[in-house]
Specification:
- This protein has 500 residues and is α+β, with helices and mostly antiparallel strands.
- Helices cover 15% and strands 34% of the residues.
- The chain is elongated and about 80 Å long.
Length: 500
């Protein structure tokens, strides 16, 4: 992905255009294919649902940044209007006789995207990034009718938004299908507003499911090769029954145009988000009150877990529901409310989708044995993250007595070291004062100021304690030592270091 860019598929447009003419006859030399691509049902589905697909037009007032009214619009690479604008703006002179370059007053910019009607009362689903920061939102029906819309609610984490408008006439609505039933290779149909060209139908297959592209905490995209371009954002992805099984949201492209790698939020996620936005105007997600990390092969070996799986609990929120339920750092969650947890993303998604206040069974592995804890979920809040304190390089008045172990220089925590590394009084353990270059510890990103709280799930308070635990691990024939590491603010994580 080094040469490609993940692109939200909203189209920014700074001018309205009419396409004067189209070149014809250029394709007469090519024969039509013997059979159209895809199954015969595509045309029937498109005819059935296209009136439920709408264009979303937004306007926003922004400060002019040079060029005034003569600034060339920012069109996506490959736009059919690029050549037109090149000729127009390069030859047009500014109001002072020069070519552009003048700062002007604030101006309005327009954005275009897609959406779809899910209720004949005038409820529309689209992407949050299509309507973000908009001063005005309009829904444009397939027949060109334009109606002002109001925002019902947004969810930034899944990039979804719900709008409503007063229908000027009877509407056609579409319903959600079951995205969990999709199979790789199933045919899908995308309808939207690419490059502001209006209702456009493209078809392809499901290329992958549950795709995590690190765009958000609940990534589980449907990947498709159906052509999706700028302006398709918020548009529906249909199955051959005419049910919405996804919302087209992102593409990966080096140019901004479709190269056959597009992503849609699955309908299972969309339906739940939309229901809550319509009911509450916001999302009310379940909250377990834990910080989690991946279970690597090294960590799994240290915890006697075969095969490596689950979500490792690295920290517990003192006010969260996990603490009174008896869940502790070092536990590995392998099942939540009857659903298997293969990795941290699985746990994040299933917890978020579970109703606030519901009592659930959480299966954990602790010291090699499974246990079941009953947890009553709280509600996830979304405060701004507290910024970690910046470490300083100021020397301590006295050089601390250190001991080497696992490629680390370790020292007993004292007042001077707490001040130097800004370590809170609540953090207990052995402080790292230096990390050997090219060591396993350096590779695992340990650094001076980190605090070793536990080794092999036993508390340590000195370098000698650490070395004693490492020696025992070697005697037990294990290849790595599992460390519980804290930063200065008390945030914990697990790190497995080789003892070979």
């Amino acid at each position: 992905m080094t040469a490609a860019t993940i692109v939200p598929t909203r189209l920014r447009q700074h001018a309205r255009l009419g396409l004067a003419a189209l070149a014809v006859g250029a394709f007469s030399m090519f024969g039509a294919p013997a059979q159209a691509r895809g199954p015969e049902g595509i045309a029937d589905v498109a005819e059935k649902v296209i009136d439920a697909v709408v264009n979303i037009s937004t306007s926003q007032t922004v400060e002019a940044k040079g060029g005034g009214s003569n600034t060339m619009p920012q069109l996506p690479p490959g736009s059919p209007f690029e050549e037109f604008f090149d000729d127009f703006f390069k030859n047009r002179k500014g109001p002072g006789g020069g070519k552009g370059g003048d700062n002007g007053p604030p101006r309005k910019t327009n954005s275009l995207g897609s959406g779809f009607i899910i209720d004949t009362s005038g409820i529309v689903v689209t992407n949050n990034h299509v309507i973000a920061d908009a001063d005005e939102i309009n829904v444009i029906l397939n027949d060109g009718t334009k109606i002002k819309a109001e925002l019902v609610g947004v969810d930034k984490k899944t990039d979804l938004a719900v709008l409503k408008f007063k229908p000027p006439k009877p509407l056609i609505a579409v319903k959600f299908g079951d995205s969990d039933k999709l199979r790789l290779g199933d045919w899908v149909i995308a309808i939207g507003n690419p490059f502001s060209l209006g209702g456009t139908v493209t078809a392809g297959i499901v290329s992958a499911k549950n795709r995590d592209i690190s765009s958000g905490p609940y990534d589980s995209y449907i990947q498709t090769d159906a052509a999706i371009n700028r302006g398709n954002s918020g548009g529906p992805l249909f199955n051959l029954e005419g049910d919405v099984i996804g919302v087209n949201t992102l593409i990966i492209s080096p140019s901004g145009g479709s190269i056959g790698i597009g992503f849609a939020v699955p309908s299972k996620t969309v339906a739940g988000v939309v229901d809550q936005l319509r009911q509450f105007g916001e999302l009310r997600r379940g909250w377990l009150g834990v910080r989690i990390q991946s279970v690597t092969d090294e960590i799994a070996e240290s915890l006697n877990i075969k095969p490596a799986r689950g979500a490792l609990v690295a920290g517990i929120d003192d006010k969260g529901p996990a603490k009174p339920a008896g869940i502790e750092p070092g536990d590995v969650v392998v099942k939540f409310d009857g659903k298997d947890v293969k990795d941290p993303k699985d746990l994040s998604r299933v917890v978020a989708d579970t109703a606030v206040g519901k009592e659930v069974d959480v299966v954990i592995i602790r010291k090699g044995e499974e246990q079941t804890k009953k947890v009553t979920l709280g509600r996830l809040q979304d405060p701004d993250k507290v910024q970690a304190a910046v470490k300083t390089d100021e020397p301590a008045p006295e050089k601390p007595v250190t001991q080497k172990a696992l490629g680390l220089d370790l020292a007993v925590l004292n007042k001077d070291l707490r001040t130097r590394y800004k370590i809170k009084d609540s953090v207990k353990g052995v402080v790292v004062t230096n990390v050997e270059a090219n060591s396993d510890a350096a590779e695992k990103r340990l650094s001076a100021g980190d605090v070793i709280v536990e080794v092999a799930q036993e508390a340590v308070s000195s370098g000698a304690d650490v070395q004693k635990r490492v020696d025992q691990i070697k005697k037990d024939g294990k290849k790595s030592a599992l460390l519980l590491v804290s930063n200065g603010d008390g945030e914990l994580r697990f790190v497995a270091l080789s003892v070979q």
